[in-house]
């Protein structure tokens, strides 16, 4: 329960920090809360194993490097690196998430629109499972 709360607050602070034109303090708090919440949810050992697998080292470098750059004080560059690292880290989960969203009544109809459907299919065809 604590981990879900920390992760939720981390996502909230990250989103709010981006809305307020990449506010350094909010983004830094959001990053710390998100990573701490992830560690509370799945445990320290599993978090360490997830981030430091041999085939995910590049993604981990971009994600944690982006967090460090945000903490140093360059939020725009740090968030770009974080988003790229996040995409590389969690791309194995995208097919599952897209399959779930397609079953949600309103969102599923939205994802099946002609222009959006082809884009979602490309994102969802990742065969790198975690």
From TrEMBL:
Keyword terms: Golgi apparatus, Membrane, Transmembrane, Transmembrane helix
Transmembrane segments: 5-22, 28-48, 60-77
Keyword Metal-binding recorded: no
Localization per record: Golgi apparatus membrane
Membrane topology term: Multi-pass membrane protein
Top-level taxon of the source organism: Eukaryota
Annotated Gene Ontology cellular component terms: cytosol; endoplasmic reticulum; Golgi membrane
Pfam families membership: Got1
GO biological process: endoplasmic reticulum to Golgi vesicle-mediated transport; retrograde transport, endosome to Golgi
InterPro entries cross-referenced by the UniProt entry: Got1, Vesicle_transpt_Got1/SFT2
UniProt family annotation: Belongs to the GOT1 family.
PANTHER family: CGI-141-RELATED/LIPASE CONTAINING PROTEIN, VESICLE TRANSPORT PROTEIN GOT1B
Described purpose of this protein according to its UniProt entry: May be involved in fusion of ER-derived transport vesicles with the Golgi complex.
Protein name: GOT1B protein
Organism, as annotated: Anseranas semipalmata
Gene designation: Golt1b
């Amino acid at each position: 329960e604590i981990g879900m709360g920390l992760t939720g607050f981390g996502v909230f602070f990250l989103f709010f920090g981006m809305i307020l034109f990449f506010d350094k303090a909010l983004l830094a708090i959001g990053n710390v809360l998100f990573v701490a919440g992830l560690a509370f949810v799945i445990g320290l050992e599993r978090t360490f194993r997830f981030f430091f697998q041999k085939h995910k080292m590049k993604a981990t470098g971009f994600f944690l490097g982006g967090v460090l750059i945000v903490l140093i004080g360059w939020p725009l560059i740090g968030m770009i690196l974080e988003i790229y690292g996040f995409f590389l880290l969690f791309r194995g989960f995208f097919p599952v998430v897209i399959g779930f969203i397609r079953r949600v009544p309103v969102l599923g109809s939205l994802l099946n629109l002609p222009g959006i459907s082809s884009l979602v299919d490309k994102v969802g065809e990742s065969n790198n499972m975690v």
